[in-house]
Amino acid sequence: MLHDGVVAMIEKRYITAQELLEDSFRLAAQVYNSGFRPQFIVGIWRGGAPIGIAVQEYFDFKKVETDHIAVRTSSYYGIGNDKQSKEIKVHGLHYIVENAGADDRLLIVDDVFDSGRSVFALKEKLSQMMRLNLPRDIRIACPYYKPKNTMVPMKPDYYIHSSDEWLVFPHEVSGLTPEELSEGKSDLHNIRDLFV
User: For residues 83 and 73, is the Cβ–Cβ distance under 8 A?
Assistant: First the structure.
């Protein structure tokens, strides 16, 4: 952001593993308390995977049987006239396509609903592949939602925090300076020597 010739630094919010785990269980409780009982939980790899695990564990604790899987999305630049926009590719849907049906309920879990493009691409790809077998009730759950960044005609059905901050998740270390690692990742102090 440029203001009077000065670049403004975006404040980073460092999320600890404990905070993310607690928020994942809060998210699961929110879904459960809404009455929604998914037969399938799809965690979007990478960030949504640990949250999906916690959500599935919570439902299992509540004696609600769910099937669960992680799928992956990736960004790439299109060819031809579409070189300017990144396309989202979805990988690993065969299990859901082969096992879920129209009467099933499906919960998509990710760490943050930012632009929303990954979740939107996942829903679109499922629709293309499953057609009439697409579960009629698909909902989205993310601990973090960034409404100002959303670029798709949807939003999460369940979320814990609405934020405009730059979120740094517990597993994220790539791209951080030594100072950021030291100050923002204090929970890693016992293994700080690994990051020199």
Answer: no
**161 phi and psi angles, rounded to 5 deg:** -120, 135
Side chain identity at 6, as an amino acid letter? Answer: V
pTM value? 0.90
CATH architecture of 12-166: 3-Layer(aba) Sandwich (3.40)
Asked whether the predicted pLDDT for residue 78 surpasses 70, the reply is no
Helix (H, G, I), strand (E, B) or coil at 162: strand
The helix (run of H) or strand (run of E) holding residue 142 is: strand 137-145
Count the residues in the chain.
196
Q: Are 122 and 108 spatial neighbours (Cβ–Cβ below 8 Å)? A: yes
The span from the CA of 61 to the CA of 183, in Å, is 36
| Model pLDDT for residues 20-53, shown as the tens digit of each residue | 999 999 999 999 999 999 999 999 999 999 999 9
pLDDT digits (tens, 9 = 90+) for 102-122: 999 999 999 999 999 999 999
Query: How far lies 82's CA from each of 77, 85, 118, 123, in Å?
Result: 8, 6, 18, 21
